[in-house]
């Protein structure tokens, strides 16, 4: 890859044992902290970039925050899980966000209407990871259905 195609920002989540819970944006080439987001009240477990300036983070505080670089508060906050949210993943078009939790549910959130549009409850154990299929709108296979695993 060329220097221009390398990722520019890196995101981390931290928890300083009761003192601070922060999602930090780092400039990958310099190692400089460019912004900190202190919105979660407990450790952040996952972060997923939507595009070059927005991302979502999830936490053991049962919440999901959608954030934008340069903003000092979340654009959206989703609540609905009853236990820690382990992972989040944007669909290929960035219109919906999937989340999975220790509450044994997988939820799909609609960005346009700010609500949970599907609550998938057939798991009988905690769910730790999720992935969208490489099909559907916004992918190389736009005429095939989009699936979540």
From TrEMBL:
Repeat keyword on record: yes
SMART domains assigned to the protein according to its UniProt record, in alphabetical order: WD40
GO biological process per UniProt: regulation of transcription by RNA polymerase II
GO annotations of cellular component type: histone deacetylase complex
Cell location: Nucleus
Similarity section: Belongs to the WD repeat EBI family.
Protein name listed in UniProt: Uncharacterized protein
């Amino acid at each position: 890859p060329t220097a221009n195609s390398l990722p520019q920002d890196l995101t981390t989540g931290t928890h300083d044992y009761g003192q601070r819970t922060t999602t930090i944006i780092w400039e990958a080439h310099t190692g400089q902290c460019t912004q900190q987001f202190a919105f979660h009240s407990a450790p952040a477990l996952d972060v997923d970039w939507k595009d070059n300036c927005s991302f979502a983070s999830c936490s053991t505080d049962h919440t999901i925050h959608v954030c934008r670089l340069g903003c000092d508060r979340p654009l959206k906050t989703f609540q609905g899980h009853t236990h820690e949210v382990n992972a989040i993943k944007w669909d290929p078009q960035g219109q919906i966000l999937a989340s999975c939790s220790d509450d044994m549910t997988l939820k799909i959130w609609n960005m346009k209407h700010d609500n949970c549009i599907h609550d998938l409850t057939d798991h009988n154990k905690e769910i730790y990871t999720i992935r969208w299929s490489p099909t559907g709108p916004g992918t190389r296979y736009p005429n095939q259905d989009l699936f979540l695993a």
